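Standup notes
- DV: blocked on the single-chain target, sequence here:
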Amino acid sequence: MEPGSVWFILGMMVTGGFLAYFADSLGRKLGKKRLSLLGLRPRYTATILTVLAGVVIPLLAMAAMLIGSGSVREWLLRSGQVKQERDQLLRETQNLTTSNSKLKQDEASAKAKLQETRNLLASRSSQLKNLNSKLSLLTKQAVGLQRKFNAAERAVATQTRLASRLSREVQTGRAALGLIKNQLTSADKALGTAKLSLGSVQTSYSRLNAEYLSLNREFLALRGQVDDLTSDRDSLNTQLEDGRKKLTAAQTELQDQRRRLEENEGRLAELQRSLEGAKTSLYEPIIYGVGTEVGRKPVNENLTPGEARKAVEDFLSAIQTSAIQRGARNSDTVQIVQLPNGPQIITPFQDRLKEELIKVLTGNREPMVLMSVAAFNTFRTESVPIQTLLKSNPLIFRKGQVIEKLRIDGRQGFVEVLDQVTQLAQNTFQTAVIAGLIPRDDTATTDPRSLIAVVSSIRAEGRVVQVQVIAKEDTRAADDLNLEFKVVR
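- DV (later): unblocked, structure below
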């Protein structure tokens, strides 16, 4: 048992004994004086006073316990709430157990998907090697066909030159034949010789004509081969282009598969870290409940890109530092940023998504506030899942503005006046929330010393006065309430 508890029990015993002694002395004195209450006999009067003393003694003892022990006040005032919190913690423990099982299933599923992705990557790599082999083979075939085509073109050129030469020879023979015919008409003596020459020339002509026809057929055949080779070359070029396109598509798909593999490995690592954190956090206290504010940062209007970037980076650094100081794990904290086009998942070091938030803040036409709250219950040593919100930060109260007022009778007791002042403070807070105040977790609390000072001022007046709650400075939605209580006679 703690020394404070021992002294408290001893104090209660001494207080109870003193009260009993005082009541006994009071009863004996009243009995000796033989007082009469409401016309009753002195004996009955003494009995009634003794009963009243027996009622007052436990009440005074209970009041002393409430004044002297915060634990007793806590037990009397919050016992039901403590039971509800205990039941809530039990339910959250069950939910964490269920989440742990689900995380294990997700881990197994992620491992299976990772193995499937690796198998697919190996298959794509094999297909890529086959396509590279086919591309090399087609390239070699195209080079061979190009050489054949060049050789065929050279052969066609040679045959064309030969055909031209034969054609010139035929024309020369025809000219010679005409000359011989003229010579036959002018010289009969040379008839026999001319006939012999004519037969020889005709034989040569027939032979040359046959050779010409043969060369012409060969030329046409070679021309057909050239056309076929040209068609084959075009077909091979088409196949080569298709092969290149397939290779490019395969390379693109391979890069996509590699990127997906890296993403899956990152997700698997995050799941493993979450699973380890969940296992450890079952034995750690909760540092952030659902919806608990982690941090906020007001930002002015018309920010430049540099100012917007600095505001976002300062905000992310501040909430990360706050979470670490409260016991969170020092790691990249996952955040959910609420942008105008919907929520998106980011981390503080993902530049692409951080740039989108900076773009929203750049050139904003009104003051705004960056806020972050815990998305789930977070235990010590866990990373904090945070929901980051971007809200408007308008001016809700001007300096000197009366927010709430109430007439209070200063002739009442201290407790009655304190209750009314406390209710006035609560009404002021509700009015501020309705006006647009974004409350912190501790915004609704009021300094007890200031309330006691106001109560003392009201009771010092000794009459009905009006108590006004005034804003001490210009207040925006994300600011803390800075209030002043003013007693008006």
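- Follow-up: Residues 286-390 form one domain.
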